[in-house]
Q: What sequence folds into this?
């Protein structure tokens, strides 16, 4: 293992590219391998045992490709499987979970909203974090159907707009002043969400924080790359068209069964 080995990133589909983008922007000299397990998306409706099994499969693929560090760019996989991954593999892991802390800490109304998958909201890790903020009312909403619409290429569809209206209106009525996006797919919905939310409500996602943490762990454990900027590699185990579109056809996408 050398400091010029790639960073591995996986998600239950294309959503984690929002995390990849933040990492790539902060660390442009790092080689990255992105794994989109779109065939098995969404993870949020699966059991914990299924999520752990799929996550290990993804990690095995990335380790076989000599990754020096792995970013679990999926809230559901992080909250349900990262402990098992850290116990199983001798490699640094970076997880992603809903950014409750900055929202609760900065909220003036003491009411915040969380839009996430069922798997994330039901996880032990999420609930332990939420319990730390007893003085804040946390409005939880499962984003039923959102991930699948994104994975199907229906990002700007009328059905998406209708679902977002249904999920966000009760939060607005409850006087939230922060909305936490608890799924790596959801940052792609920010333009539509902003059309629904009043201007004073702040939207928080985890991309920049995960990128900074990746940089910190590389410095401490895996080593920062001293190579010149390199092209990222993207793998997907289903139709690559949606991933290519979300990447604006800038990069090569390899369709591979894994």
A:
């Amino acid at each position: 293992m050398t400091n010029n080995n790639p960073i591995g990133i996986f998600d239950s589909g294309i959503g984690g590219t929002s995390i990849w983008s933040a990492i790539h922007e902060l660390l442009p000299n790092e080689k990255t391998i992105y794994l989109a397990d779109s065939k098995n998306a969404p993870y949020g409706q699966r059991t914990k045992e299924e999520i752990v099994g799929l996550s290990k499969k993804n990690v095995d693929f990335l380790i076989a490709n000599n990754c020096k560090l792995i970013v679990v760019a999926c809230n559901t996989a992080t909250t349900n499987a990262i402990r098992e991954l850290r116990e199983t593999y001798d490699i640094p892991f970076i997880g992603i979970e809903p950014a409750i802390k900055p929202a609760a800490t900065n909220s003036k109304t003491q009411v915040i909203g969380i839009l996430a998958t069922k798997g994330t909201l039901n996880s032990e890790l999420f609930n332990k974090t939420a319990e730390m903020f007893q003085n804040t009312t946390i409005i939880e909403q499962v984003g039923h159907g959102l991930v699948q619409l994104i994975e199907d290429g229906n990002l700007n569809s009328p059905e998406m707009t209708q679902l977002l209206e249904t999920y966000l209106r009760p939060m607005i009525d409850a006087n939230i002043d922060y909305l936490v996006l608890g799924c790596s797919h959801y940052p792609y919905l920010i333009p539509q969400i902003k059309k629904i939310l009043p201007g004073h409500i702040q939207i928080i996602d985890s991309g920049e924080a995960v990128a900074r943490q990746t940089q910190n762990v590389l410095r401490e454990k895996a080593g920062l790359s001293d190579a010149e900027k390199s092209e990222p590699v993207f793998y997907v185990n289903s139709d690559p068209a949606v991933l290519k579109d979300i990447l604006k056809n800038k990069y090569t996408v390899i369709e591979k069964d894994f």
User: Anything to note?
Assistant: The mean pLDDT is 94. The longest helix spans residues 48-64. The longest strand covers residues 111-116.
